[in-house]
What we know:
α3 (72-85) links the parallel β3 and β4. Helices cover 50% and strands 13% of the residues. The chain has helices at 15-27, 44-54, 72-85, 99-104, 112-127, 160-169, 181-197, 219-227, 230-237, 241-247, 251-262, 266-271, 275-281, 287-299, 314-329, 339-343, 349-353, 355-362, and strands at residues 6-10, 32-36, 59-65, 90-94, 153-155, 172-175, 206-215, 283-285, 304-309.
Amino acid sequence: MHRPVGLGLASRGDLRDGVEFARKAEAAGLESVWVHDSYFERDPITYLSAIAYATQEIRLGAGSLNPYTRHPFVLASTLAALDDLAPERLSLALGSGLPLRLLQMAIPFENAPARVGEAIDQVRELWAGRRLLLNEKLPPLVPMFQPPHRIPIYVAAYTRPYLELAGAKADGYLSRPLESLPAFELMRRRVLDSAAAHGRAESELDFRGYLFALVDRSRAEARNRAKRDPFVIYMISILSDVSLKRAGFPAELRDQVNKLWRAEDYHGAAQAIPDELLDAYVLVGTADDVAERAHQYHQAGMDVPLLQPIVQEEAQVQAVLEAAVTYGSEGRVGAGALGSSQVAGGRSAVEREGLWGRARRAG
């Protein structure tokens, strides 16, 4: 038996590269590829449209999007159009959006949990072909598009009201990148508590999460490279007090990294990140190491880990796919398979062996 695993991508870089990464994920037997909304980068729906046209079986996740920059009617019509290209392969995750970024765009940000909950209801109404009355002074909105196949909706936000919302009405929960294992366990428990309070069974909910990953020849080399990555430094520097508390770290560690990052002392900031802090939030090491860490999240209740390469370029995507295959096939690729083929960008073991595909056919 195999375990489903997905690939997470940011909507950055050449769109054709994103399509090729998704095709390789499909060829390797991954269950899904998800593209999330990165503010001020490229549009994720455009990426997903191209990926949908270029693939045949792999599921596609749009997440997370939000009902502020995309009105619920726009969300419903957009996903209905994508369903033509990828029938029965789509999932949608909805979150609140980032308040600061929304304010930069002069978009009012208020009562976000209720807004996301309303959006879930409204999108489902429109997908069912029903009219939607939002302005009593005007006729209702009429969906002129064909109702799509079933599209699961996930909640993708981490505060308690959203966790309760996920348990009350969503099809699943999608955790954000850089979520520690203790934090995920706590959030999953709160989602399930809400589900039980609303008369729903645990089996009605699917739990997924983005897991940032960086693969190298050894854990030490992977840690060193991750710490020197500007994006990782930035993300560590803005970890919330709550996130750090849940993972068991003092806020002073973050504050020191943040101070050095703001002073543009990136070397000093990298040195200020302890191994234990990095390991709590990022999957680093060999392909086997990353697969093992993904398995720990699975044991904590994450049904489908979404491995996302920190460095979104061919060699790292190949390496992360290798880790995904190892995790999904419940086997051990072995450190020797990593070598130059993965890290240097040559023909990977994923392409050579198709391990998970064979395991899936055998199972």
